[in-house]
Amino acid sequence: MNYVTVRGSRIRFHETGDPAAPPVLLLHGIGRSLEDWSAQHSRFDDGYRVISLDMPGFGLSQRMPAPTTLPVLADGVWATLDALGETRPVHLMGNSLGGAVSMTMLASVPERVSTLTLVNSAGFGKEVTWALRVLALPGLGRAMLRNINRVSAPRVERTLFRDRALVTPERVAMAIKIARQPDFAPVYLEVAKALGGFRGVAPAWRTALLASLAELVKPTLIVWGDRDMILPSTHLAAARAAFPHAKSHMFPNTGHMPQIERPDEFAGLVRPMLAEVAV
Known about the structure:
Blueprint lengths: L1 E5 L2 E8 L6 E5 L10 H7 L4 E5 L16 H14 L6 E6 L1 H12 L4 E7 L10 H4 L6 H6 L6 H7 L10 H11 L4 H12 E2 L2 E2 L1 H11 L6 E6 L9 H8 L4 E5 L6 H4 L1 H16 L1
Parallel strand pairs: 3-4, 3-5, 5-6, 6-9, 9-10
Antiparallel strand pairs: 1-2, 2-4, 7-8
Helix pairs in contact: 1-12, 2-3, 3-9
């Protein structure tokens, strides 16, 4: 893995493929890391410059100085691409929180986005796992985030996948390593507070963000796993309504991360859209 300094913060990234090829950017969810996209690098880097990164304050990246919000994360990701010398329009793919960040990036600088792929994305409903809601309770959230260990980490990982075989020792070890980073708990709580609270995902930012995207028609694919325990698959209907021009797909017997559970099928759905843009 490599690091680049962005506005004084160390940001971790992984890059494969030809640097001259069209760029693909892969963004993970809240409290996660670029490892959530590792299976997709080899499925795209034969024709694309594939970049995944730990968003500021997550994974092994340092935070940005300002309190962490969607606009701060989006701005930090754009600045990271600039630092990597990538200023061409990118194919954005975002999972969960990464989907909301991708939409925020599109709203802020639409000319730098070629396509948008939303994977079990935040932003389409108030329903969210209770594990995220309780983080809003004073004191409890910070205590929970500081108590991610070899007992609790596997339980969290099991909520992400329909196939429990994917809860590997490596994923559990990475979750614990991430939780021990000094920025992990503060940034996690800042984002959780910015997006909602005990009652679920707040409607104000969702409404404003989707309204800002109404006139920005880009080739878009929306996918979901029908057994998602974090953001329910019923949100797909709202996502289709918000992006009437988009293609969509529901993966059967799949959890919160189709890019991991259904790597070949996922890539097979996305690649035709990317290829159409190049024609």
